[in-house]
Amino acid sequence: MSDLQSIFSRFVTDHLDTYQAVPKTFNDIIDRAVFGLLDSEILIEDNFSVKPPLVPPKVGQPLPEFEQTYVIDQLTNQIKTDGFGPHFHNIIGLFGSIMLQMTATPEQQQQVNDWLEQGHFGHFLMTDAGGPSLNHWDTKLDNSSAQWTIAINKKWGIEAHQLGFLMLVVKQPGKPFPLTFLVPPDQAQHIEQHKVGVSYLDGRLQLGNVKGTINVDASQQLKLGGLSSVNRFLTLVRPRFVKALMNHMLWLASQKRLAMDDTLYEHIQYLHKVADGCLANKSFSIHSVDQVLALKFASNELLFDTVAQGKVCHFSDQRDLLGFTKMEGSSYRCFLEIYAKQKRARQ
Fold it and tell me: According to the model, what pLDDT value does residue 345 have?
């Protein structure tokens, strides 16, 4: 392993080691992945000092508990028998329900319950046509007059070709963080929407693009709990998403659609144990977000390595697994978020 790899792979592996030491064969996968992600800014501006050991958190705050997690965990376990496809929308919907409980007022939650009873699906629209940087987003709020408007240009939303109600993430003028608005179904149906790409998970998951302009008011903003609620939400859902992906791999193997070997099985079980460790930790600390980012990074790279080694038999399954390496945090975004937080401590 080169010096560069030894410096930078620890940004990921130190967090995984918190729960259980990374197997050598899995560590090799992570080393290679991190090595390939070193961008121009890092190679030019980093001081290449050794990363200091993680300092145990001095304080922590209790993580909230939600009834939905018990149902999610049951569905996640069922994936080993059925695959992710039949349960994907239910699990994602329950994730959204948790997020709403953390960010919505009681009145907004009642609105959502009414829409769900009417059969409307909820869509979380984050990925923007302007690219990953908030500075370049096309979806932006204009609140310069009494009538607020949002210009929308979102892509790759789950089932976004047939909109129900929306949790719409937008750029706000002059601020470095986004806002989220709750958009009702009667308003959403007038926005341009269409399918994009071939479906995933044996035809059970379709993505769509959304474009248009709507009027909103301050009462539609989801702001209960502030930015900290989003971090707590991700701490609760990312490990469960990884467990779902690992169980989908086991299902593919049971269907003779993936060639399982002892090493791959060990890696899958390792990620299960780390995910369970994250979920067993009921305290939110300075390391919580980075731990689940490291977990998602490791999951991404295991999926990528499995496909790259030719272990996945069908093209559609290869595409599914590679697609999941981009959903809910790509390796590049996961690594950069962890790296950025600890960069100052090394200078």
Answer: 63
